[in-house]
Specification:
By secondary structure, the protein is mostly helical. The chain is built from 5 helices and no strands.
């Protein structure tokens, strides 16, 4: 007879555990930090700030939110001090902080101005009908 998995709920214990993770296995829905991260990710995706290639980074963000929720629920006040700085850096990388969004906007404006200021070579001469000749 195989040995039962000690981490799985036993018969009659399923109601003691949250069903959220079963309902939405791709989302960590544990506490206010995880929910805030999920809202930010959803808003960023709705505004086309994130692509599918960002999924690995989003997993790190969700794990960070879950870690903060875990520290809070276990009343471990020093735990967040280890997680917050790397989490903020990950938020910057995903352009989910006001500063990082402003920087990416500045870069887009610089790129546009550079493109406008760069002369393009054209095969056809510009024709101005008011100056015939």
């Amino acid at each position: 007879m195989p040995r039962p998995d000690p981490r799985r709920p036993r018969e009659g214990q399923e109601s003691l555990f949250e069903a959220e993770a079963v309902k939405q296995p791709d989302m960590v829905l544990r506490g206010r930090h995880s929910e805030a991260i999920d809202r930010a990710i959803a808003a960023a995706k709705a505004n086309d700030l994130l692509d599918d290639v960002d999924d690995a980074l989003l997993t790190v963000l969700r794990a960070g939110g879950w870690a903060l929720d875990s520290f809070e629920s276990q009343n471990k006040p020093y735990g967040p001090s280890k997680v917050i700085d790397p989490l903020v850096n990950a938020l910057r990388e995903a352009h989910l902080t006001p500063d990082s969004r402003a920087e990416s906007t500045d870069e887009s404006i610089k790129e546009l101005l550079h493109d406008l200021g760069t002369a393009t070579v054209s095969d056809s001469a510009i024709h101005d009908p008011t100056h015939a000749g």
